[in-house]
Design a protein that fits this description.
Elements lengths: L1 H23 L4 H5 L25 E8 L2 E8 L9 E7 L7 H6 L1 H5 L3 E5 L16 H14 L4 E11 L1 H12 L5 E5 L5 H5 L13 H6 L13 E6 L3 H15 L5 E6 L3 H7 L18 H6 L21 H6 L2
Parallel strand pairs: 3-4, 3-5, 5-6, 6-7, 7-8
Antiparallel strand pairs: 1-2, 2-4
Helix pairs in contact: 5-6
């Protein structure tokens, strides 16, 4: 019996050690960020031309502080005579520059009664700070969230984050970093930056041979880190996003997290573009794929983007209204 008891004890101890090693193999994004320092070999502005955005009716421009950087954001104007606190969405724009079309894209949230803030991040639109491709920009997102939560017309317990394309990726990363948001939604965001950056050396400001840099920017590396319910939307034919989005959601579910992936219209970027009838004043992203001749004929003056870029003619995303109505 003593021999049997010793064997059982050794077996249990060995199993516990193996289990501990498995747990340690699943890092948490917020903990890893505390010890990691990105190394940028190229410091400069975001890799997208931009035009000054003209403030539109119903929006106010505010300044928010991110570290030692003074950045800007547009936020819904507070209605006169309304004292009740409302839910709010921090909406993160696509691409690496902000324009009036981004404000229009978030209209479904405002129609549903949300206060909406869209921050411009470091290095964008002539603002200070160095573009870092999804890393230091997360700090800007969280700083903007703090400012939005402190507004007198916002209920801080009903603060959401959502984003399209580049903004969708940042929404995923922000929802992993701090328990600030009630829920998060990503529209055509990229869970895997190794795949996203392939063939786009101009958007990579760090050593492209450093896998750790890519990992720190990839939600897929931290599936156990989500701190709120998350919905990951992507176009059903956006292969770059669909497989990694499905894998991210499946891995998160193994940790009992409320994360779902949902395939929508075939090309979410293109569908967003078709819903807009006018040209954007914002110049297209420098690494857009040229549109096929057939598309040029059917839609003169419109630019079709590759999945990892943005459209130069973006309107409300087909998923935004559904998410907004689900508040």
């Amino acid at each position: 019996m003593d021999r049997l008891g010793g064997w059982l004890r050794r077996g249990l101890i060995g199993r516990c050690r193996r289990l501990r090693r498995l747990v340690l193999l699943v890092p948490l994004a917020d903990k890893v960020r505390k010890t990691f320092q990105t190394r940028l070999i190229r410091q400069g502005s975001a890799p997208q031309p931009w035009h000054p955005a003209r403030l539109v009716p119903g929006a106010d421009e505010v300044v928010y502080q991110s570290g030692n950087l003074r950045l800007k954001a547009w936020v819904s104007s507070a209605p006169d005579g309304v004292n009740e606190k409302r839910p709010a969405v921090l909406f993160l724009h696509g691409g690496f520059a902000f324009g009036e079309d981004d404000w229009e894209q978030a209209q479904p949230f405002r129609d549903a009664g949300f206060v909406v803030m869209i921050p411009t991040l470091r290095g964008e639109n002539g603002l200070p700070g160095a573009y870092s491709m999804f890393y230091n920009e997360v700090d800007d997102v969280l700083a903007a969230a703090d400012v939005l939560a402190e507004r007198p017309d916002v209920d801080p317990d009903r603060l959401f984050v959502a984003g399209h394309s580049v903004g969708g990726t940042l929404a995923l990363l922000a929802s992993m970093t701090r328990a600030r948001f009630r829920a998060a939604a990503s529209f055509s965001g990229s869970p895997d930056q190794v795949a996203w950056a392939r063939g786009q050396p101009q958007v990579v400001p760090f050593n492209p041979n450093d896998n750790r840099e890519y990992q720190m920017r990839s939600p897929l590396a931290f599936p156990a880190s989500f701190k709120c319910p998350v919905r990951i939307y992507y176009g059903s034919q956006e292969i770059l996003f669909s497989r990694s989005s499905q894998k991210l959601a499946e891995q998160a579910k193994k940790h009992n997290l409320d994360v779902e992936w949902l395939g929508m219209s075939p090309f979410a970027h293109r569908c967003a573009q078709k819903e807009r009838g006018r040209r954007s004043r914002r110049r297209p992203h420098p690494h857009l794929r040229p549109p096929p001749p057939r598309r040029q004929t059917e839609n003169p003056g419109k630019i079709i983007c590759r999945p990892s870029g943005i459209s130069s003619n973006v309107g409300p995303h087909p998923c935004l209204k559904k998410v907004a109505e689900a508040k």
